[in-house]
Every structure is written in C-alpha cells, then in structure tokens.
Design brief:
Helix content is 37%, strand content 19%. By secondary structure, it is an alpha/beta fold. α5 crosses α6 (152-161). The longest helix has 18 residues, at 269-286. It is elongated. The structure holds zinc ion (ZN). Zinc ion binds next to loops.
C-alpha cells in the first residue's frame, strides 16, 4: 500500500508562470539524497530543462562530478505513466544542457515504451518513480520532514499507523533486558514485564505482596530469569510490553495497579521503584493515538475477562 498520495502536490501552473510545487519537491528530495542542485526550477525558455543536479563520485581515480538533467513529470492526477511523448529527445536535451546523465523524477511510473528508450540510450539514466521517492523519504527523520511538508495528510495517517515515541523526556526511553542487557525498546518484540509475587500459603485474606518487577526478552531470557528466581518461591504474572505500550492498555494497567495499592497490595521498595521506572520508560510510547491494528488488539484483549485482573477502573 503506497503511503504518500502524490495528488497532495498540486498540478503544474503553466499558465501563471509560478514554479511548480512538484519541481520544488524534486529539488528538495534530490538535495536530501545528496545531489547538489546547480540549476533550480525556473520557468524560462529552458529548452525542456526542469532541474540540473550534480553528483560527486569518489573512486580510485579521484573525484568525478556527474551532471544530471532532471525531468519532472507530475501525472498523479491522471494516474497515467510517463510516455516517450512526455519525455522526448532525451539525449539531445542532455547534451544541450552539458549534462552527462538523465534523471526522470515522476509521480507515476515510466511507460514500458519510455523504459525501453531509456535503456537504449548510451548515457546514464535513472528514474525516481513514486515508489522509489516514497522509499527514500520514509526511512529517515530528514526524509520524513520533507514528506510532511509536501504530503501533510498522508503523513498524518502514516504516523498514526507507525507510532514513534513522543519526545517527552530529555533522554530516550530505555528498558534493558534484566538477563542479557539487550535494549528491548529497539527490538521488534519488546519482550515481557514480569511481576513477582509472594505465595500466600493458602491464606487468601492476606493482600498480595510484590517483591520484584523485571523486564526481559521473551523465551530464553525469561526462562533464565525463572530459573534464577526459583529459590525465592514467588509466583510471576506477566504482560507483553507491546501490549502495555498501547495507550488504552497502559491507562487500564495503571488504574488496576492503583486500585490494588488501595486495597492493600504491597510492593517491596525495589519492586515499586522498578514499576515506576517501567511506567516512565514506556510512557513516551503511549502518548499518542491507537493504530488500526492496536484498536483491533485492544478489542480482543478487552474480551478476555481475566486480562489484567478484569481491568476495572
Ligand atoms: Zn534478554
């Protein structure tokens, strides 16, 4: 599924002579990628030139500079591919502008015919089509900044579906596995948090008492921890950290902890400090909207009566 809707960039205003937003977009993307823009978009008598960029290449023979003639074609509104008629006389235009390469910057795709022509030219050619442009932009903070400027609506949707932690504290959040010390927040699987509770020896009138709160990788590290804890004769309850990271679950979890505290459940100093640390580190991941997948997951979780002790507020 494409993320960026190129129709957010207005069509060219040939009539009023204003610079096209799409050409300005091309300039920003290409300089972000590392090209030097030597001739910016200009609606003069430019003989079919949209933009000239330079690429510095360092090789064994030293540095070479390659000049690219950039042709911008914004056909997202018609959805049609860029045809040989849209981009004609490529080799002549490249030579006339003292360039060595041709770069097509298209909001759709090159047609098969144009692709064939480009492949047959004896100059370097490359095409940035909508997929490649999107790929370049969505994988870095700087790229996202450009995307946000030109595609505000697409980006708002994308950010909800791809949440990143809010910038709330001076330091980045960190939860290191209690066993192997790996940074859990950098893993796809964020691991689990375990709460270690004293066994009651049949006296259920006694309130629960938590001795430790640990976070670990799932699987191996969790088993290692269980082995280490065996002598303490505690029982462990656990949650997926990625579940607790969902805003709805986080607030329910926090409320159930507060209710438990009120009802007399106790925590050792260590467990209470760890619990606070956990809630603080997870919070930046929580301060946001729910993604579509999470909305489904919350529905599923809420349907499980025992989940987080009933989740009563
Ligand atoms: Zn681990």
């Amino acid at each position: 599924m494409p993320v960026l809707d190129f129709k957010e960039i207005p069509e060219a205003h040939v009539a009023d002579g204003r610079q096209d937003t799409f050409e300005l977009f091309a300039r920003d993307v290409l300089s972000f990628i590392g090209f030097t823009v030597v001739a910016a978009p200009d609606r003069g008598a430019d003989g079919g030139k949209d933009l000239i960029v330079e690429e510095r290449r360092t090789g064994v023979g030293g540095e070479t500079v390659l000049r690219w003639l950039v042709s911008c074609k914004h056909k997202a509104f018609s959805g049609k591919s860029v045809s040989p008629a849209d981009d004609s006389n490529i080799q002549d235009r490249v030579a006339a502008n003292k360039c060595q390469g041709f770069l097509g910057f298209y909001s759709t795709l090159p047609s098969a015919g144009l692709g064939g022509i480009l492949a047959g030219l004896n100059i370097e050619t490359q095409v940035f089509d909508r997929e490649r442009i999107e790929g370049e932009l969505l994988h870095s903070a700087k790229g996202l900044e450009i995307a946000e400027r030109y595609f505000p609506e697409s980006l708002a949707v994308w950010k909800t579906e791809n949440p990143s932690p809010a910038k709330i504290f001076a330091d980045q959040s960190s939860l290191r596995c209690h066993v192997c010390d790996k940074e859990l927040l950098e893993q796809d699987d964020k691991g689990i948090v375990t709460l270690w509770q004293e066994m009651k020896d049949g006296d259920y009138s006694r309130p629960d008492s938590y001795h430790h709160v640990f976070w670990t990788c799932r699987g191996h590290c969790d088993r290692v921890l269980k082995d280490r804890m065996r002598d303490e004769r505690l029982i462990d309850g656990w949650e997926d950290i990625s579940d607790v990271m969902m805003p709805t679950i986080y607030v329910k979890w926090t409320m159930s902890i507060m209710n438990e505290l009120r009802s007399g459940v106790t925590y050792s100093d260590e467990a209470f400090e760890a619990l606070k640390e956990f809630l603080l580190q997870v919070y930046p991941y929580v301060a946001r909207d729910l993604s579509t997948n999470e909305r489904e997951r919350v529905k599923t979780l809420s349907g499980i009566p025992a989940f987080l002790g009933g989740l009563g507020y």
